[in-house]
């Protein structure tokens, strides 16, 4: 699959559960902006047929190359980032949950879900919008996961799909700061992620990021109970030049740690 086709499918699947992203993109386009994506992100379960190592070859098949690795101790995650030789194609941030670091009750729940994933689930890049590869969890299991790992609860309900797309502020014509973008979003009534402040990072770190709080939807669990869950969110990133004159093109653990919270249910 060509990368351009991949991102068309990915975006269509994403806006189905993230209507705010389509609205915000339309708003920018209506103001004469061309919206270029800085990156997209995915979440998955380690030690599963869809682990990071099993997914990576699908990204490589489209010309992506890994160039960074990250560890989130408190969230029990590892991640890698990938880029393409075509600078207009988004970077990709792929994280996986180290389930063995969660309490036994969570490991048991996730173990059941992972056991339902076909061994040969990864056949093509279409795996990145396969959604849930397991049956619906019970509301009780969901609550147990939520207590220990918001990421696990999100992944159990939403499965594999683009967790967010990210607008590249650098490539907007009428905005020179992330604060201006945030103000416009607030004025338009969107809820932004306030964990650690609206802006994650700083020019001195060469990366500033902000994000909306994820859209919400009603989800019916295996026991018939309905709850409101988080779907996906939209991010905004402004990259700065490093002393060598190049734009910083990687990610920052301290920023990412807070961006993950954009799918918090509260
Ligand atoms: C990924 C969070 C990290 C970034 O830009 O640092 C991230 C996620 O929420 O799955 O996207
Ligand atoms: Ni991101």
Automatic annotation (TrEMBL):
<dbReference type="InterPro" id="IPR009770">
    <property type="entry name" value="HGLS"/>
</dbReference>
<protein>
    <recommendedName>
        <fullName>2-oxoadipate dioxygenase/decarboxylase</fullName>
        <ecNumber>1.13.11.93</ecNumber>
    </recommendedName>
</protein>
<dbReference type="Pfam" id="PF07063">
    <property type="entry name" value="HGLS"/>
</dbReference>
<keyword id="KW-0408">Iron</keyword>
<keyword id="KW-0560">Oxidoreductase</keyword>
<keyword id="KW-0223">Dioxygenase</keyword>
<comment type="similarity">
    <text>Belongs to the 2-oxoadipate dioxygenase/decarboxylase family.</text>
</comment>
């Amino acid at each position: 699959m060509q990368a351009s086709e991949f991102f068309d499918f990915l975006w269509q699947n994403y806006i189905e559960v993230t209507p705010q992203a389509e609205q915000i993109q339309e708003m920018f386009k209506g103001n004469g902006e061309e919206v270029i994506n800085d990156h997209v992100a995915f979440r998955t379960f380690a030690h599963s047929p869809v682990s990071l190592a099993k997914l990576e070859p699908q990204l490589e098949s489209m010309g992506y190359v890994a160039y960074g690795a990250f560890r989130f101790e408190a969230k029990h995650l590892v991640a890698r980032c990938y880029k393409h030789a075509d600078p207009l194609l988004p970077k990709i941030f792929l994280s996986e949950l180290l389930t063995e670091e969660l309490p036994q009750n969570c490991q048991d729940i996730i173990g059941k879900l992972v056991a339902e994933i076909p061994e040969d689930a990864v056949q093509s890049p279409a795996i990145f919008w396969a959604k849930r590869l397991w049956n619906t969890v019970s509301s009780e299991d969901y609550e147990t996961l939520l207590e220990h790992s918001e990421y696990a609860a999100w992944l159990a309900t939403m499965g594999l799909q683009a967790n967010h797309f990210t607008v590249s502020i650098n490539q907007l014509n009428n905005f020179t700061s992330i604060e201006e973008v945030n103000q416009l979003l607030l004025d338009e009534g969107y809820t932004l992620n306030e964990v650690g402040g609206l802006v994650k990072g700083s020019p001195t770190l060469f990366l500033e990021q902000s994000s909306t709080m994820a859209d919400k939807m009603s989800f019916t669990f295996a026991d018939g109970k309905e709850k409101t869950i988080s779907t996906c969110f939209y991010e905004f990133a402004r990259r700065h030049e490093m002393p060598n004159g190049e734009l910083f093109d990687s990610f920052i653990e301290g920023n990412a740690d807070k961006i993950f919270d954009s799918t918090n249910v509260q």
